[in-house]
Each structure stands twice: as structure tokens, then as C-alpha cells.
Amino acid sequence: MNKPLHLQYAEGLRSGDRAMLARAITLTESTNLEHRILAEKILEAVLPFTGKAIRLGITGVPGVGKSTCIEQMGLHYIQQGKSVAVLAIDPTSTRTQGSILGDKTRMTALSANPMAFIRPSPSTGVLGGIGAHTYESMLLCEAAGFEVICIETVGVGQSETDVQKLCDVFILLMLAGAGDELQGMKKGIMEWVDILVVNKADGANITQAETAANVYQQSLHWFPQNLYAWKPRAVCASSINPDGIFSSNTNH
Amino acid sequence: MVFLAVIQTIENFFNHMHENNRLSQKRKAQVVSHFKQLLQHEWMQLFWKNLHTNHDIEQDFLQHDFNPYTALKTEKERWYKLFKF
Ligand SMILES: Nc1nc2c(ncn2[C@@H]2O[C@H](COP(=O)(O)OP(=O)(O)OP(=O)(O)O)[C@@H](O)[C@H]2O)c(=O)[nH]1
Ligand SMILES: [Mg+2]
Asked: Is residue A205 one of the residues assigned to a domain?
């Protein structure tokens, strides 16, 4: 009599039911076999409706300003009439609780916006690592009609190499003057970068940030051109500068 | 409020990727790598080893010239059968 469960899920999330979407994502993250099977069926049912979003991967060391940046970008896209889903991936399950709360509180304006959906997601204890279930969560968000997907990861572990396999554009946030910030990052990360953002380019940091962006832009030239012939760009940004972002370094 | 430089660069990026089908090529490659990752699940690996000793998933996968989503579906169906889901 009743519709099969996976079709109820599929319809629910397609109709914009956020609770259904959240539950479907939980199923994809589950290690319970029955949950996985249900998740697979839901995914199958919604696959034709996926693939229409732009997928942004945002990475950088803790505190570089990823969440704040995502919030501002998210609000920008919402202003343009687009709905935004954020998948925030936590590097360790032990840190999960505190950090999730932190991110949620930081993205206050975004999480209060009906056009946005924010979902923290564990990176460990999940079959196949983050790549497997984040990919699926992303597909579910797309099926639910989200047009912009932002995936936030901390740039220190396996999760980035995974994330660059999921997103269309890989955005790395850095700070000017931190000098050896790359040392804490996964080796080779620069090769994945599509857009390098020198963040917190405000107040006393402005000149330093512009210089840093120039230096990074130069060094990005030394990386072999990627498969898709995109030349990586370095730009400055600030999430707190009310005038928004001033000029960027894009003369290449 | 708005990150003109970042937003603008993202827009340039997508304009670039929409030329010559680059974006769908990139996504196609990502689906392949997604499956490779799924195959790394211990249990999957075990089944895979037993059932398909010499099978090259990537070759097989790339042979369909396909919409990745349809391929994903087809591939999953095959896996369900294989793994008796
Ligand atoms: N001056 C300045 N401060 C910023 C900017 N963006 C973020 N911050 C501050 O930097 C701190 C960290 O910002 P978050 O956005 O939480 O950084 P995050 O990279 O998401 O941090 P984790 O999620 O813990 O890895 C906060 O106190 C922000 O207020 C910026 O553009 N300029
Ligand atoms: Mg954060």
C-alpha cells in the first residue's frame, strides 16, 4: 500500500523537505548495512536530478577563515536567488562536536537563511573515507535543488585530496605573512589549487596580503598546467571588510 | 559584503570549464575515482578480489561513453547483483 521507503525519501527531499534531506545524508554516513542499502536506493532514485549545482571545495588551515568566507559567499549567491548547501567536514571524529557547534554559530546569518542548508559531516568512522559519503551527500543536496554546494575541509589530511575529487573548483585559503603555512598542509596541495585566496586582507594586512598574492601568483606559474587548461589564480579577500574585496591579482 | 574578486574568479573558472565540455570531463573523471575509492572499502575489496580477479574497473567504466550519472546507476546495479544486495 505504502510507497517504498526510498521513494518516500526521494520525494520528500525533492519537494524541499529539509528533515528528509538531513536523514538521507545520515543514512549515507551510516555504517549499518541496512541504512547503506536504503541510502543506495534513495540515491538511485534521485540520480537523474543531480549534477546541476556548482561544487565549490574550500580548504585551509584551522582559523584561516573558511566558514566566514563560505558564509559571505553563500549570502552573495542567495542574493542572486540561488540556494546554497554547505557540507563542513571535520578532520577528526573526536573534534566533531565542538567544531560543528562552532561552525554553526559562526555561519549564523547563513544557517538562519531558508535558502541555505548547513551540514557538518564526520570524516572518520565512515566507510570509504570522506570521499565516498560526501560525494553522496552532495548528490542528495543537488537532488534537493541546491544550486551551489560548498564543501569545507581543513587542509591537513587525506580529506583534501578526497575533496578535490568531488568539487569543480578547489579553493585554498591562506594567510599572508604566515610564511610556512604550507608546511602544515598536505604535500602537493598546490597542484590541486584552482583559486588561491589570501584571506583576511583587511586592516593592517592589506599590503602584505597583496604582496603575498603576487608571490603566490608567480609560484603558481611553475606548476604544470592542469588537465583542464585552467591557470590557477591568486586573489585577496576579506570577509569583514565592509567594502568587500578590493582589487585582485588577475593579470594573467 | 561581497567578495568581488573571489566571486569573479569563480565565475571566470566556470566560464572556462564550460568551454569544450571541460566540466563534464572533469566530473566524469571524478566519478571514476569515486568508484575506485568505493572499491577500497575492505569488504568491497574482498568481494572484488574473489569475484573479478583480473577486472579493470576503470577501463570498463571508461568504455561506455556516457553520462556519468547513468553510468553510476548502471554500475551500481551491477554491484547490487554482484554483492547480492
Ligand atoms: N580580520 C579578519 N578576520 C577574519 C576574516 N575571516 C574570518 N576571520 C576571523 O578568523 C577566525 C576564524 O574564522 P573561521 O571562519 O571560523 O575559520 P575556519 O577556517 O572556518 O576555522 P576552522 O573551521 O576551525 O578550521 C574568526 O575569529 C573570524 O572572525 C577576515 O576576512 N578578516
Ligand atoms: Mg570552519
From this structure: yes
Return the ∠ at Cα A181 (arms to A179 and A104), rounded to 5°.
Answer: 130
Which protein residues have a CB closer than 5 Å to ligand 2 (ion)? A 66-67, 103
pLDDT in tens, B9-50: 999 999 999 998 899 888 877 877 766 666 555 445 544 555
- CATH (domain of A218): 3.40.50.300
Place of cell 537532488: A143
Q: Is residue A26 part of a domain?
A: no
Write down the ipTM of this complex: 0.86
> What residues make up the domain containing A150?
52-246
- Number of domains comprising chain A: 1
Residue A100 Cα to ligand 2 midpoint, Å, equals 8
Cell of A178: 604566515
In a domain, A83, yes or no: yes
Residues of chain B positioned with their CB less than 8 A from the CB of A195: 6, 9-10, 13
Question: Cell triple for residue A55?
Answer: 561544487
Q: Which of B26, B40, B76 sits opposite A228 (nearest CB)?
A: B26
Pick the residue whose CA is nearest to atom 7 on ligand 1.
A65
Spatial separation of the C-alpha atoms in residues B32 and A169, rounded to whole Å? 18
Please give the average per-residue pLDDT across B44-72, as a whole number.
49
Tens of pLDDT, residues A6-43: 999 999 999 999 999 999 999 988 877 788 889 888 98
User: Is A168:A191 a contact under the CB 8 Å cutoff?
Assistant: no
Q: State pTM to two decimals.
A: 0.83
